[in-house]
Amino acid sequence: MEKRNFAVINHETPRLESIDKATGSGKYTDDLSVPNMAYAVLVRSPYSHAKVLSINMSEAERVPGYLGCALPKDSPQVYFNCSGNPPSPLLMADERVLTDEPLVLGDRVAVVAAETETAARAAAEAVKVEYEVIAPVLDVKAALAPNAPALQPHIALDNIIQRRDVAQGNIAAGEVASDIIMGDRFVTPAMQHTTIELTCCVADFSDGEHITIYSCSQTVFQERRILAEIFGLKESNVRIIKPLVGAGFGARQQLHAQHVAALISRRIGRPVKLLYTREEDFYSVMRHASDVDLRIGVDKSGKLQLFDTTFRLNAGPYTTHTPTVVAAAARKLQYNVPNYSFVGLSVFTNHITGGAFRGYGNTQLTFGREILMDRLAQKLGMDPVEFRLMNHVQVGQCFPCASIPVSSNGIEDCARRCQQLQREIDRREPLIDDDEIRQAWGISFSCHGSGPSSKEGLSSAVIMVNDDATVQLLVGSSDIGQGSETMESQIAAESLGISLEDVHIKAADTGLTPYDTGTFGSSQTFICGNAVVRACDDLKRKILTQLRVIYPDAEVEQLGKRYLVEANGEKTEMTFSQAIHKIMFDPHGCVPIGAGTYKAAACPNPFSVCFVKAEYHKKLNALRLLDVIEVVDVGTPINRMTVAGQLEGGIAQGVGYALYERMEINPRSHRTLSTDFLHYRIPQMGDMPRTHVDMVSSYDPYGPHGAKSVGELATVPVAPAIVNAARRASGMEINSLPLCDTFVILPAKRGGVK
Q: Which domain CATH number covers 257?
């Protein structure tokens, strides 16, 4: 493991926006106001599948302050895909801005505008829509039935958006080589992002030629492209600006309200603000419900011989991200197995649309995989950690069906650190196993990628210098609350040899900042971070070149982060600040500007290990979480405080996924029962066990200063580790979430974060 000393990175550094957030002075989209701004509210379908027969606006028009409306006939008659991913043959055009054939609860039927938000909501409620209700198809099984109606017939008559087959070796040979084969079906529910900030945008399309949008967005450049396509504009006529964002988790990786707000802005000739209610956010987009058949085979020594899975995702009625989520899951197997088969099905239903969510398919696949791996270890009589380690890929090896070798791997260090923390906990509180309570540990391994697995990640950065040697860093990536602007500024400061306070960052404004594919796929640290490093390297080269112009008779070279000028036997060292001052104020000077771009050519894997201690109350059939440990290998942690925060947040999200969370739909009315936080259970402080997080360093050769990603990795292993602990404590086989369907969930053992 390579050891390096850093001045700015790999320390605990408060985030740049911390004071603004703590004091409430930071500006989110809903805090913004522009001159002559009106307010817009959507009219949504109350049915999961219907046809609009008529829309009567007469009562809405009488609401004081009413300004106008847009109906399906008024919206562009083009199909588009709302995903914030770059263009891909996997993503189908199947959605319209407004529709008269709603395919999901909450589908956009009309939009109204008024002088105030109150008036706009009153006008929306006054719109009278007559529907022909159609029986919905809500689950994958029903959608795949022979007599199921085709929900998007121009794409799929059998409701299968795409089938993805990935294979290596021979499954039949794997069956012969296996002494033990275990298989089961694993089911996980749809899950809401539950961001703190409600979806909101401010749009100005009042001149009909230029669109300016302020939006809580993860992918400003992709959304610019889609909006330009929808409205027939050049991309240069569309500007998207990202204010502070109150979390994303994938929810902001697609168009949400921007196109509707732009449409009504053009209709009334004024800028508009469109703010969702919590209920609207709940049925807008969510993590896909999954249905996974999985078989794993091993020989007597415990070596994996077979991995065979059929992976089904409930897409809802629109493609959005589903095929790319399936594609991402197909190559997330971190174990060596010679015979591998993955069949992935993306299936249309009338369920709430599935979209991007932290873990992007990996969460659903890892759930079943790590449960089966635990069962196999127990069947073999092997330690579950050692069983996983002996089958794990090593540096220089490839994941099954992957082509890029693993470039760094600290998984064993993660496991040993988890074991150490486990022993310390058990010394303080030994495991209990008596007539009433049985305690047990469960474990899970996980991995992810640094950047999109399709290598579509692209980022660029520009560094401009001021005459006081401070720098302005321009990046196109979006900080959505994960601290990427602080991380990118730290990378720039480390690369240039200056203090963090001397870096001023501007991000995610398509009118000012350079191109970036967006904040998704754990891409910020690796892809945008590499672009920042390259921009800094370019700036340093230009500084060196200009110093050689200024000192034509001297030897000028760069030594680390300093510049050495040698003339007439005398040596002069210059810091970055001194070099900039010399260059900018010399008669032969200039203003050096650094630019860098990075196209993902590698996808280093961060790894994590999660241990969970739980107790089962036999007489109550109740489960209590006691401790969660997660240790990650993220290469060089750019900001150790941010990494720890990502881990703690990821654990909380995994606890919710495991214990409580799911989108519930009334089987009779076909309407969602999950409309707010009274009807959708998320973890509260009393639900959170004692949490212990740590990180090891593996220094990845492809990462900026050796770094890999962490954001998505953090949540992936938590739910299967909880289930494995619950299984070992209760003796029950568990194949589905949430666990509140199986156990009474008791308040967690409190003790704080360590």
A: 3.90.1170.50
Q: What is the 3-state secondary structure (H, E, C) of 70-128?
A: ECHHHCCCCCECCECCCCCCCCCCCECCCCCCCCCCCCEEEEEEECCHHHHHHHHHHCE
Decide which of 557, 583, 599 is a domain's last residue.
Answer: 599
Same domain, 198 and 235: yes
Digit-coded pLDDT (tens) for 671-694: 888 889 999 999 998 899 999 999
Which of 571, 599, 627 is the endpoint of a domain? 599
- % the chain with pLDDT above 70: 99
* pLDDT score for 403: 87
Q: How many domains is the chain built from? A: 3
Give me 569's structure tokens. 């036997």
Helix pair 718-730, 362-380: axis angle to 10 deg: 30
Please give the pLDDT value at position 438: 98
Q: Are 260 and 40 in contact (CB under 8 A)?
A: yes
pLDDT number for residue 492:
97
Structure tokens that stand for 462 in this block: 């520009």
**How far, CA to CA in Å, does 269 sit from each of 237, 265, 357?**
17, 6, 35
- Does residue 445 belong to any structural domain of this protein? yes
Residues 465, 420, single domain; the answer is: no
Per the domain annotation, does 83 fall within a domain? yes
pTM: 0.96
How far apart are alpha carbons 636 and 706 in whole angstroms? 5
To the nearest 10 degrees (0 to 180), the angle between helices 718-730 and 640-659 is 50
The answer as to whether 590 is a domain residue is yes
Lowest mean pLDDT among 3-12, 34-43, 60-69, 137-146: 3-12
Q: Give every strand in the sheet of 570-574, ordered side by side.
A: 555-559, 562-567, 570-574
Residue ranges making up the domain that contains 228: 32-136+193-282
Q: Does 498 lie in the same domain as 577?
A: yes
Q: What pLDDT, on a 0 to 100 scale, did the predictor assign at position 1?
A: 42
Closest residue by Cα to residue 717 from 604, 612, 635: 612
- One-letter amino acid at 179 equals D
Task: Supply the pLDDT for residue 453.
Answer: 63
Question: In whole numbers, what is the pLDDT of the chain averaged over residues?
Answer: 95
- The answer on 626 and 658 residing in a single domain is yes
574 and 630 assigned to the same domain: no
Note whether 486 and 593 are same-domain residues: yes
- Mean pLDDT (whole number) for 271-283: 95
Q: Tokens 């997660």 — which residue?
A: 630
Residue 72 pLDDT more than 70? yes
- Classify residue 386: in a domain, yes or no: no
161 φ/ψ angles, rounded to the nearest 5 degrees: -60, -50
CATH of the domain at 642: 3.30.365.10
Phi, psi of 52, deg, nearest 5: -85, 120
Cβ distance 665 to 726 under 8 Å? no
Alpha-carbon span 446 to 500, nearest angstrom = 33
